[in-house]
Design a protein that fits this description.
Two copies of one chain form a homodimer.
Chain A lengths: L15 H17 L14 E4 L7 E9 L3 H8 L3 H16 L4 E11 L4 H17 L3 E9 L9 E12 L14 E6 L8 H11 L7 E2 L4 E2 H6 L6 H10 L2 E6 L4 H5 L8 E5 L8 H9 L4 H7 L4 E7 L3 H11 L5 E8 L3 E4 L1
Parallel strand pairs in A: 3-4, 10-13
Antiparallel strand pairs in A: 2-5, 3-5, 6-11, 6-12, 7-8, 9-11, 10-12
Helix pairs in contact in A: 1-4, 3-4
Chain lengths: ~350, ~350
């Protein structure tokens, strides 16, 4: 099984031993994230994935993403597996909002100097999250490019492919006034807003990643590295039982940028502040960093990682079903007629 | 249509105007590489692609790759669209060897400082190659990370997803002694061996990218930026008409590393030197760079971009059919019994 084409780079003033060691270290993690649909890949150049049966008009949903500057925090703390989890979970959520469940994931890991233990930790994280989401880790690429990346700096990106029955695609088209906005809580910054967060914590406040912050009951590093939550386990049962009209993954740009992506023309989302607990990390950044509220809401998820738009009658039933499973859910507001956008009220 | 999530990075000390301009510049190129299977993506977080009908047991084949340090040559010459083509064609070839035809492609473009014109040229190249290969450009991610990439430095990676009928997967399993190795010519270095090539041309010989090399009848830069050839147009008709037992895309590691990836146990590939024209760029690097032959063959494709393994009876028929279409093809050697590997004879 050939997960990584590291040896291809051995001629690049690149350490072939490091490459081999990385492949050896990654192997068990990659194997752990196999799924039955993955076909044995003897001498494969690409990864083979047999399409699950039972779809009438299967539609594939693909999304590519990176981890952004959360990587720099991981590097500073030398904690690497969680950014692997972040990346997979982020991608899972990005296709979930269209009603798709994940099939497989592939990563791109590029660095100036390959550290086998770092590569192993990254792939371990990918593997953990792939298993948690029932997603195959189908393959990936590891590149050592000393001319482009400085030393042990690295970048990490990934692509997910999922599937949805055509008639079950969620596209927000049916959203109408009176529909209800339900919010599912995030675990922290998820994977967005790190440039501003780094500026506040490390430049304005002059903290170190290891600085303990009483208000957060943890260190800055731990608070900032909280794993991006996958909403698949919570949302998947809802997709079968209820009519979900629209879903927005609250990533970079916050409510303001992400909610309008699923709203039809002349539909406005009215969100009432104080209907959910803003996480302490956001309160802390807003107060101590002296950041205005508009910037906060345009940069961070503020404690809500996923928003569902559902009919007014379904809303209380869905909320009850989630709370019975001990899942937190907040009624954030309603859809109104008006220019497409988000109104914080 | 939301191809690029650039605005999500606007808070990162990142230039939102550059992001918007890049999106505007990319738009036409992205639109040009739509295919009918792509569904209108209102407010999409991921790209939607309806699976073509007519497959009994559809198997998806995925591959992720980067362009490697060919990017540095592109940067030096400020010629960007061709590396976009390189990346798509490379990926197309990587899944073609398993018998798959491409469905869609997604890119990851990360840079220290977003240059809208550079991003446009890259996406233009992706779009050109996607159209040439009948592949949808389904989406992508553009990230501006000044903390990780220096200035205008950038990295480019991509993921392709293709499809093959399960019973038509090409896996080399049936390769047996007496089978024939046919070689299809490469256009140049394709996308591999650039670190060694840069060392020879720019360090040992002290050339500049603009240096004209009489032996190559062109400048170093032009010779090194030749577009990675897609073998899909040549190979696709062969897949329907003939039994292709195995195919190897000759990438990093050359014949030596890539051919064994498709050979069964106890099958050796005997390749006769001088059965194909080694491209002048390789001759030049070997002689002037004083590189031994083993290193050359372990680093470069030496003029052969794709190798097909076919039955002895099929070989002359296939060669004739290609030559009738004015396609060059070389009989490189045969499969023998022996420890899995490549013997240059």
């Amino acid at each position: 099984m050939k997960k990584k084409k590291i040896d291809a780079y051995a001629k690049a003033g690149v350490n072939i031993d490091a490459g081999n060691e990385a492949v050896r270290r990654m192997k068990a993690h990659v194997r752990a994230a196999r799924t039955p649909q993955m076909l044995a890949d003897i001498g494969s150049f690409g990864g083979l994935f047999q399409l699950p049966a039972g779809y009438q008009q299967p539609v594939l949903v693909g999304s590519t993403d990176g981890v952004g500057t959360k990587l720099l925090i991981a590097g500073a703390l030398k904690q690497y597996h969680t950014v692997g989890q972040d990346l997979v979970n982020h991608c899972v959520n990005d296709i979930l909002v269209q009603g798709a469940v994940p099939l497989f994931f592939m990563d791109y890991f590029a660095t100036g100097k390959l550290q086998p233990k770092v590569a192993e930790q990254i792939v371990k994280g990918l593997s953990i999250a792939c298993r948690e989401n029932g997603c195959a880790l189908l393959g990936g690429e590891t590149a050592e490019m000393p001319g482009l990346y400085q030393g042990e700096d690295f970048d990490l990106a990934g692509t997910i492919v999922g599937i949805v029955e055509k008639k079950n695609i969620i596209d927000g088209r049916a959203i109408k006034p009176g529909d209800v906005l339900l919010g599912l809580p995030s675990s922290g910054l998820q994977t967005n807003g790190y440039s501003l967060a780094r500026q506040i914590f490390f430049k304005q406040l002059n903290y170190k990643p290891a600085t303990y912050v009483p208000e957060l009951k943890t260190t800055v590093g731990e608070a900032l590295l909280r794993v991006h939550r996958s909403f698949l386990p919570v949302v998947k049962p809802l997709l079968k039982a209820f009519k979900i009209k629209g879903m927005a993954h609250i990533t970079g740009g916050g409510f303001i940028d992400n909610l309008p992506r699923i709203l039809p023309e002349n539909r406005r989302a009215d969100i009432r502040l104080n209907t959910w607990p803003v996480l302490p990390v956001f309160q802390f950044m807003q107060e101590r960093g002296n950041i205005d509220q508009a910037t906060m809401f345009r940069t961070f998820n503020m404690g809500i990682g996923m928003i569902l738009v559902v009919g007014a009658k379904d809303a209380p039933v869905i909320m009850r079903s989630l709370r019975e499973k001990k899942e937190a859910v907040y009624r954030l507001g309603e859809i109104a007629a008006g220019p497409r956008g988000v109104l914080l009220v």
